[in-house]
Amino acid sequence: MKKTMREYDLKGKKVLIRVDFNVPMQDGQITDDNRIRESLPTIEYALEKGAKVILFSHLGRIKTEEDKDKNSLRKVGERLSTLLSKKVLFIPDTRGEALEKGIEEMKEGDILLVENTRFEDLNGKKESTNDPELGTYWASLGDIYINDAFGTSHRSHASNVGIASHLPSGIGFLIEKEIQNIEEVIQNPERPFIVILGGSKVSDKIGVIENIAPKADAILIGGGMAYTFLKAEGIEVGRSLVDEESIPFCKEMMQKYCGKIILPIDTVNAIEETPRTCFVSDTKETEMGLDIGPATIKLFSHYLEDSKTVIWNGPMGLFEKHPYEEGTKTLCEVLNKIDAKVIIGGGDTASAIIDMGYKNSFTHISTGGGASLELLEGKKLPGIEAIEDI
Ligand code: ADP
Ligand code: MG
Question: What count of other Cβ atoms lies within 10 Å of the Cβ of residue 385?
């Protein structure tokens, strides 16, 4: 168990909080502020307790001087200030006198935002390679370190692992929620425990399948990866996405977890631009499978109806292109009706579900794409491991 913010007396302390403000931006404007909103409970708690809150985050990737302008956190600071209805002091530097003086002058309940941590990557990739000098310097600015940047916790950077090794530390409420809803649920699920996997490639999900298959009561496979499984079963899949190298792995899984891995029975195929629904075995050489069909939804629903825990990663079809979003959408409807804990992991899955209007329909939608996949793989994340145990 990791220490949380609740284990510390934050009053009057300089609390360094690593948040994930890596929001999508277009033409200098924030297009989705969900990540800022997700960090509010942690920030508000620290402010209420009388902390001096010093925020660190990265935004985008910084490879050249020109990347700095469009990836400044200034706009994020303004949005945060609006959301908190409170002044946020933005320091346009990642180190130096202005930052140190700004922190020195803070009072209890004040909040300060440091410029994009990755600006330090121009200086020999110091942030992304967890340069010891940088982590030590940042840690020298505060008394307590709280990591709440779930989306970067699978990386070992100066602003998470680096700072954490020098200060009393804890996790924030967002990371706590992610651990409770992914890691702890996998360890001890209420059964029946059903896992739904989809997305493009089997090779991206090998670690997830290996970790989850022994624990789940059934694994329902859709999306592009289903066609590699079907091909491994000897079914002709035409021009569908097939990950040839993963065929032996699929064969092994089908044998090892015989009866537990459930594959689609029908498919929505594209012939040129026209969609056609048919049984998987009727797929023609020229066709490409882009979604699961209604019979498969019915089959999957049968498993989901009386389930108590569901974890879903990977869209059921090429949801970006109409009408191949139908399988993913119908699955959302099914999951919305059942009486189970439903947890969504994976970057594309989360954005598909939110775009389809199911943002508030499920128990938990993970805020970290890569990080949530690594938790599903059963891995320990360095940004969380670096935090003190209770
Ligand atoms: P996540 O980011 O949630 O882990 P993935 O990255 O594994 O999910 O998969 C998402 C991608 O899979 C989407 O871009 C989607 O279009 C693609 N996909 C799903 N089904 C198919 C399919 N049948 N053929 C091709 N691509 C597919
Ligand atoms: Mg993805």
Answer: 14
Return d(Cα 236, Cα 65) in angstroms, integer: 51
Task: Provide, for the chain, the percentages of residues in helix, strand and coil under a 3-state DSSP scheme, each rounded to the nearest 5.
Answer: 40, 20, 40
Cα 311 to Cα 140, 161, 183, 336: the distances in Å are: 41, 28, 11, 13
Spatial distance between the Cα atoms of 195 and 310, rounded to a whole number of angstroms? 6
Ligand 2 centroid to Cα of residue 373, in Å, is: 10
Kindly report the pTM of this predicted structure. 0.93
Alpha-carbon span 361 to 193, nearest angstrom: 19
- Say what the pLDDT of residue 197 is: 97
* Alpha carbon distance 22, 38 (integer Å): 12
Query: Is the peptide bond prior to 192 cis by the omega test (within 30 degrees of 0)?
Result: yes
Q: Which ranges of 142-190 would DSSP assign to H, the alpha helix?
A: 163-164, 173-178, 184-187
For residue 14, what pLDDT is reported? 98
Q: In whole angstroms, what is the distance from residue 39 CA to residue 22 CA?
A: 12
Question: Cβ(253)–Cβ(263) under 8 Å?
Answer: no
270-290: b (≥16 Cβ within 10 Å) or e: beeeebeeeebeebeeebbbb
Q: Is the CB of 48 under 6 A from ligand 1?
A: no
Atom number of ligand 1 nearest to Cα 347:
2
Instruction: Compute the mean pLDDT over every residue in the chain, rounded to the nearest whole number.
Output: 96
Query: How much is the average pLDDT of 140-154?
Result: 97
Nearest-CA residue for ligand 1 atom 7 is 199
Overall residue count recorded for the chain in this entry? 390
Relative to the CA of 319, which ligand 1 atom is closest?
Answer: 16
Instruction: Give the distance (Å) from ligand 2 centre to CA of residue 144.
Output: 34
pLDDT at 242: 96
Confidence tier at 272 by pLDDT (50, 70, 90): confident
Which pLDDT belongs to residue 83? 98
Distance separating alpha carbons of residues 209 and 364, to the nearest angstrom: 20
Range 82-85 contact pairs with CB under 8 angstroms and sequence separation of 24 or more: 83/33, 83/36, 83/37, 83/40, 84/40, 84/43, 84/44, 84/47, 84/111
Q: How confident is the model at residue 143 (pLDDT cuts 50, 70, 90)?
A: very high
Q: Which of 159-173, 268-282, 308-322 has the lowest mean pLDDT?
A: 268-282
SS3 284: coil
